[in-house]
Design goal:
Layout: H1 3-25, H2 40-49, E1 53-60, E2 63-69, E3 75-80, E4 87-92
Length: 116
């Protein structure tokens, strides 16, 4: 094996894991920097204005994820861009998987209550 080939293998070995790790983060639904995020309280007020009863707001894939009930009592899980508060994804009723744990701690370590 010549030295050029050895260098190429070494470089690929060093850079490969970093490149793979960066692609994992590229799958976030929301990419706004935290410095541009609106407060959770504003997100909660928007959901209430939409006629929802908010149970919890947490961060998921870079988005605000809202667990709520609509005016008919149907369960809702919705993702919002935290900077613009635009709706990114919406699941209602039977679309929601029961295996998701709504009582896991938020990213900030709180118990999942809104506004924390």
């Amino acid at each position: 094996m010549n030295s050029l080939m050895k260098r190429a293998i070494l470089v690929a070995g060093l850079l490969g894991p970093g490149l793979l790790a960066s692609t994992a983060y590229a799958n976030d639904d929301c990419t706004a920097p935290m410095s541009s995020w609106q407060p959770r309280e504003v997100m909660e007020q928007k959901a209430i204005a939409m006629g929802w009863t908010v149970n919890r707001i947490r961060v998921d894939d870079g988005c605000y994820k809202v667990y709520a009930f609509d005016a008919n009592g149907q369960r809702i899980e919705a993702k919002f861009d935290p900077a613009t508060l635009d709706l990114v994804k919406l699941k209602q009723g039977n679309e929601i998987e029961r295996s998701e744990k709504a009582d896991t701690p938020d990213v900030d370590g709180t118990d999942g209550g809104t506004g924390n």
